[in-house]
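pasting for ref
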Amino acid sequence: MKIVIAGAGVIGGSVAEALAEEGHDLTVIDSNPDTVRHLSNTLDVICVEGDVADPELLREAGAAEAELVVAATEKDEVNMVCGIVSHHLGAGHVIARIRDPRYLHQTEFLRSALGLSQIVNPEYECARQIARILRFPSAARVVTFSRGSVEIVEHRVPTNGALCGLRLSDMSRRFSSRVLIALVERGGKPLIPNGDTVLLAGDRLSITGSSDDLRRFFHEIGEYKKPVRRVMIMGGSRTAVYLTRLLQESGIDVTIVERDHDRCDQLCDLIPKAHIVCGDFTHADVLLEDGILTADGFVSLTGDDGDNIITSLYARSCDVSKVVTKIDREHFAGVLADSGLESIVSPKELVAQQLARYVRALGNSSGSSVQTLYRLSDGSVEALEFTVHEGDACTRRPLRELKLRPDVLIAALIRGNKSILPDGSTRIQPGDHAVVITAHRLRSLDDILEEKP
């Protein structure tokens, strides 16, 4: 697929990397010569230096013939102009990054007025992910499918915990909750398990089930954490504003610590019910004075990975029950997990996943397109949600009769309002939503089969 990415900063560069890995024909435009030089040396893409809002430059870069243009600069207004120009040039689909909270409730209007196919907001997606984690603090990460009908949560097996040494075939006898271990990450390597798999201390699990069953399961294994009620946020970014509003809807009390006086004044206007503290969040006395010892949730959202890591480690040393750390440089994630900081969120990775899902849906002509996509285990495994259609080759036969590709697991089916954890006798029906865990890059549900009839 021919794709033009306009703007190659943190988000645009990450999107370019993700889509290049999937083999698309990419052209990247950026006004910074150093950025252009770096991308041309590291990725197999065409790089163009210049103004992404210049119609002639967009035409020369191939926007008129592109199946997709992604406007991903740091400035919303530039992305809007780029989107309008690309649409009028004839681009098949146009996606724009629009971040300002003022535009959040105008998404449908902007899409229609500007001719956009989709709007992406990395800060809002990051806030939603963090809110899910804080609402389910027993998990290191929470991803949802079919509007919350099924969730996958990540959990590390503690030494001497109830899961340590457990054979998966014994789970249904040991625990009453209906959950499924969909992925085991051991020593940095992913394993799609079967009934003979034995869990070990330190394993990082991806566990599938309904919200209620997952909560019961964590109660049963003795790893349940009480809901978060008081959250301290470091940094008054756009993400902090979005997150505060989401948490306040759930009745959670929020304190934001921000060092810039002008930004503190803005925050008081944007989120008047939050407690805004103007101070240096890297100083322990500021955090102590403003209640870190009584907080049961802590989120570091500054623009500096180092500050986020340091303040998160300090919060953990203060026995804050749930700590969430935002990072932009993903290579830190593995090191942080070993230090006890397991809930790591990356805005650029969330957007890359969102766009990968959209691109695969565009490239699929067989019906059952990707509805949701999450990357697990540092991106080597994916969790995908497909809508099942009449005529899909995997329907109406018991799962035990389907010859699945290696490293494929059907983790859940959503039928109406009911979630189903499948077994060998389960039949996939048209109208279902199927959640699949796989090490392959799938475009349609039938790609799970080794041979299509």
